[in-house]
Amino acid sequence: MAEQQAPVVMMEEIVSLEYTTLATDVGIRFMDCLIEGRIIGHKSKQSGLVYVPPKGYCLMTGSPTTADDEVEVSDHGVVTGFTIIEPIQYPGQEETERYVQAQVLLDGASSALGLCRIQDIPFEEVRAGLRVKAVWRPPEDRQQTIVDSWGGRAISSCIQHWVPSGEPDADPASIAKNMY
Amino acid sequence: MADILDLPRDVAIVAFSQVPSVAQETRTEAQMLVESINGVLEQSGIDRREIGFTVSGSCDYLTGATFTFVQMLEATAAWPPISESHVEADGAWAFYEGWVRLLHGDIDSVLVYASGKSSLGNQQEVMSLWLDPYYLETLGVDMFSYAGLQAQAVLNAGKGKESEWAEIAGRSRRDALSNPNAQVRGEVDPAELLREDYLRGPLRPHACPPVSDSAAAMLITTAEKAAKLGVEPVYVRGIDHRADPHYFGVRDLSVSESARIAGEKAAAKAGFGPGDVDVAELAAMYPHEEQILVDALGLGDGVRLNPSGGALAANPVMVTGLLRIGEAYNAIRSGSARRALAHAQSGPCLQQNLVCLLEGGNG
């Protein structure tokens, strides 16, 4: 007889799942243009709204959009909302210092980009309405990456961060009636 | 005494649209849904702003992200704001919720949709963690192992044979030849299929479903609204769903009590039973599941099984059940059936079963 052992009452089981997402046609096109230093969107024929990044459809009318609807937008825009983040430390956390992430509505776009890091301005001066411009990474440093729904990861692989452009603040009315 | 279960109004399916099931789709689920939803809007002629309620089925586990149904809602163009709901289940259960919602009596139309891309992750691992992360996943029981255990129970009970499973797989692939939306199709010799090695004994690859990506949408309305839209209605005469215990060690896997009861309850509402239909679309992912369901529902020789090819020909998890309802609707609309049964399942080894009985407008 084997030695008597206490019954197992609890065990630890580490689980993980891996997923592979294929890039969409519109996502690949958006990424390729970013690597060239251009930001593109799709302009819906039905609503006139410009989606950046393009999704292949218009959220307001449900109509598909295609390469025919492609437009280029500016790399200057306006902060429409922001968060000052105090990074707490956990496994995988790469941030150690306070930083700002903002939603930026680019000139010519109707939908705001998420996760735009704002620099070269004191935290207390960051505000909705602040005009900003992109600081692009050098072409050799721009990386192909995943194009998520809000474009944040693709943008940050080609644009290092955003800084005040020195232009006067935007009129709040000018940023109303867009997609956030 | 009045029967409170008497349905106060007739509910009908008036439009159905799916994107073809494929092994790996590059479009997002929202993009596939734009096509599906626009398809039912075009077929029915309804203005999307007239739709009283929207309900969808999908699963974050398949997509590998949280609250993914919110992004898929973009496909509905939800402006002005809409009234909507979501089930973390096959779209057939979203259909059930839409049916209940119509019986409330205050709205006349419901948009139902479902999407799923099983190709994104390892479906075997995803299903294992999803179905039982506590006891069975830790033992390494994957999705095909679950099915293998049930298949063995069917063999042991003398209710099925491996040669019959090859016949069923062959029939499914042959029927799929005439279904442009199916994924696995072709003329195959069942004897040839039996030469395959076991994948999980006693199941060979031909007796297991493919990995599929797809999306589908459906419009259901009151009879009055269908008449206003000028579209031919297919009536939902009875629908019910039941569940067996979740842990499959406590039940006889060679039978499905929940499918039997769901069939009886649906028949009581419909006034006709599963044996009275011309076509049955069963969400049987394996041939032995089809045999269990045929027994449980009492489907006789006169019932044509899965003319679409069924889940063996395309199995987009979360959409498979809604596709069965859609294909049963198509069978009636095309005139190949007057009455049809659609079945959906969820959980391990046919744990939950939904049975829907449909009848054409002249029925």
Word description of this protein:
- The complex is a heterodimer of chains A (180) and B (363).
- Chain A is globular, with a radius of gyration of 21 Å.
- In chain A, 28% of the residues are buried.
- Chain A has 180 residues and is mainly beta.
- Chain A has 2 helices and 8 strands.
- In chain B, helix 11 links the parallel strand 7 and strand 8.
- With 363 residues, chain B is an alpha/beta fold.
- In chain B, helix 4 crosses helix 12 and helix 10 packs across helix 11.
- The mean pLDDT of chain B is 95.
- Chains A and B meet through loops of A and helix 1 and helix 5 of B.
Number of strand elements of chain A:
8
Strand order of the largest sheet of chain A: 6-5-4-7-8
User: What is the 3D form of chain B?
Assistant: globular
The CATH homologous superfamily of one domain in chain B: Thiolase/Chalcone synthase
Helix/strand order of chain A? HEEEEEEEHE
Number of helices of chain A: 2
* Fraction in beta strands of chain B: 15-25%
* CATH C-level category of one domain in chain B: Alpha Beta
Q: Indicate how many domains the architecture of chain A comprises.
A: 1
Q: Structural class given helices, strands, pairing of chain B?
A: alpha/beta
Q: Unreliable segments of chain A (pLDDT under 50, ≥5 consecutive)?
A: none
What is the name of the CATH architecture of one domain in chain B? 3-Layer(aba) Sandwich
The number of strands of chain B is: 10
Q: Which fold does the CATH topology of one domain in chain B refer to?
A: Peroxisomal Thiolase, Chain A, domain 1
Query: Can you summarize the main beta sheet of chain A?
Result: 5 strands, antiparallel
Q: How are strands sequenced across the largest beta sheet of chain B?
A: 3-2-4-5-1-6-10-9-7-8
Largest interface (C-beta under 8 Å): A-B, 23 and 31 residues
Helix tally of chain B?
A: 12
